[in-house]
């Protein structure tokens, strides 16, 4: 059977300009769902993709190369995926400003436009490096646009605890959500936005809206970001998305009260969520809203610095414990080696092999069986 022509070819015979949709936001907030929808509507996820797993059986719709390079940079910067430290943005920002890193990303992007003029790049680590990706996309002649997923913070925290076995606690995860979303909002602002055009090049999408009416929500996003693939989609692609969307995708429900957060963090998390929700409404992304988010970000920095100052003894105690464990492990290994070294060779040779094997077994130093 002859392959159906792509809708963008039929509706736009003169060609479609290059564009990259960056799907940002905290992990477990619906980023995979949005990326999965737009890819089934025809946008291209650069291959190979991260394979599905038990936490996301329908797939992640994220390029493996992107995940790998982000992991590499986060390790170098000593930043966690869910890092609550405001200063972590400066650590990743230094990598974003490196020319070799920008060249590396733009060279990776370039050949994928041969597959499709409109790409989608998604990864929960993406927000840490949005500035770098913006520059790299522009260097390939593409327009960067951004969609940030919004899901209630208590549900994000609960989902991470359920699927990632996170042991850092609700307060840490809530703080990292605030840190991530406030800086993502800042990083996705148009560099030339002016009053009346503050929303240029970005949208905010509620996870609930996507599950309730994905057609309306995705169509609005396509027109807002001028994504030709979404605007001129085909009926068979729409049917495929209907099969993809599972009404039960929202498997975790919780409220902020369920998290039992410290009062100031509880209030700041709630206020951040309230203001982010306004950005998802038509006409809600204004320069006045930006000023509110700047204030919220400053409040979070103050809260974190105060908490860090108070808990300095805990941090020092943890550092000393780690150092003591390392010394004990090193001393234990040295003790095993020095014990054997102190026994003369002729004495060791006089010990029956069965006894020597028993001693090695007791010390946990059994030799591998010889073939």
Can you put this structure into words, describing what you see?
By secondary structure, the protein is α/β, with parallel strands linked by helices. The protein folds into two domains: 304 residues, Rossmann fold (3-Layer(aba) Sandwich), CATH 3.40.50; 47 residues. Helix content is 57%, strand content 6%. It contains 18 helices and four strands. A four-stranded parallel sheet has the order 2-1-3-4. Helix 5 packs across helix 6. The N terminus is likely disordered.
Keywords summarizing the entry:
371 residues, alpha/beta, Rossmann fold, 2 domains, four-stranded parallel sheet, 18 helices, 4 strands
Number of helices: 18
Task: Fill in the CATH topology of the largest domain.
Answer: Rossmann fold
Kindly provide the name of the CATH class of the largest domain.
Answer: Alpha Beta
Radius of gyration computed on alpha carbons: 26 Å
List the helices and strands and how they pair.
Blueprint: H1 7-11, E1 19-24, H2 31-40, H3 64-77, H4 88-96, H5 99-109, E2 118-122, H6 130-139, E3 143-150, H7 153-163, H8 170-187, E4 202-206, H9 207-212, H10 214-225, H11 228-231, H12 235-244, H13 256-259, H14 263-279, H15 287-310, H16 312-342, H17 345-350, H18 353-362
Parallel strand pairs: 1-2, 1-3, 3-4
């Amino acid at each position: 059977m002859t392959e159906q022509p792509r809708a963008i070819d039929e509706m736009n015979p003169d060609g479609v300009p290059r564009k990259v949709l960056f799907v940002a936001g905290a992990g477990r907030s619906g980023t995979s769902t949005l990326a999965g929808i737009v890819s089934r509507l025809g946008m291209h996820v650069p291959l190979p993709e991260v394979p599905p797993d038990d936490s996301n059986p329908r797939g992640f719709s994220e390029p493996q190369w992107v995940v790998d390079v982000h992991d590499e940079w986060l390790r170098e910067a000593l930043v966690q995926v869910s890092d609550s430290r405001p200063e972590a943005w400066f650590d990743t920002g230094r990598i974003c400003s490196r020319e070799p890193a920008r060249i590396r990303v733009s060279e990776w992007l370039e050949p994928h436009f041969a597959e499709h003029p409109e790409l989608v790049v998604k990864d929960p680590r993406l927000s840490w490096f949005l500035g770098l990706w913006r520059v790299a996309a522009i260097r390939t002649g593409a327009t960067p646009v951004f969609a940030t997923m919004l899901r209630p913070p208590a549900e994000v925290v609960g989902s991470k605890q359920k699927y990632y076995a996170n042991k850092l606690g609700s307060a840490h995860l809530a703080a990292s959500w605030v840190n991530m979303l406030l800086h993502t909002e800042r990083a996705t602002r148009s560099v030339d936005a002016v009053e009346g055009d503050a929303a240029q090049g970005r949208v905010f999408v509620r996870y609930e809206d996507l599950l309730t009416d994905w057609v309306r929500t995705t169509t609005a996003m396509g027109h807002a970001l001028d994504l030709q693939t979404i605007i001129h989609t085909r009926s068979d692609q729409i049917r495929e998305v209907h099969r993809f969307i599972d009404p039960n995708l929202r498997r975790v429900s919780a409220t902020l009260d369920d998290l039992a957060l410290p009062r100031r963090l509880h209030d700041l998390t709630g206020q951040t969520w309230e203001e982010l929700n306004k950005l998802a409404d038509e006409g809600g992304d204004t320069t006045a809203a930006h000023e509110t988010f700047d204030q919220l970000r400053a409040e979070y920095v103050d809260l974190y610095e105060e908490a860090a100052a108070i808990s300095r003894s805990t941090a020092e105690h943890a550092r000393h414990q780690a150092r003591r464990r390392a010394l004990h492990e090193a001393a234990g290994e040295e003790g095993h080696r020095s014990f054997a070294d102190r026994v003369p060779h002729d004495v060791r040779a006089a010990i029956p092999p069965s006894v020597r094997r028993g001693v090695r077994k007791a010390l946990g130093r059994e030799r591998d069986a010889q073939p």
